[in-house]
Amino acid sequence: MKFEELTDDELRANFEYRPSREDSGQKVRSALTILKENGYSVFREGNQ
Most exposed: 3, 12, 24, 37, by fewest CB within 10 Å? Predict the structure, then answer.
């Protein structure tokens, strides 16, 4: 997953997280960053 390359608008649309809120894309990015830094979920090795 290359979320770093997506815009906040693309993240908002792709994840459908509170699409009416202006900051929803940034919040998705923040959540994915936390997951990646901790090796959780979609970023865990061997998880496909």
Answer: 37
Assessment of whether the complete model's pTM goes beyond 0.85 = no
pLDDT, tens only, 11-47: 998 888 888 888 999 999 999 999 888 888 665 565 5
Phi, psi of 46 (to 5 degrees): 90, -5
**Structural domain that includes position 9:** 3-43
Name the token pair of 3: 């979320």
Judge whether 48 lies within some domain. no
Question: How many separate domains does the chain show?
Answer: 1
Distance CA 30, CA 47 (A): 21
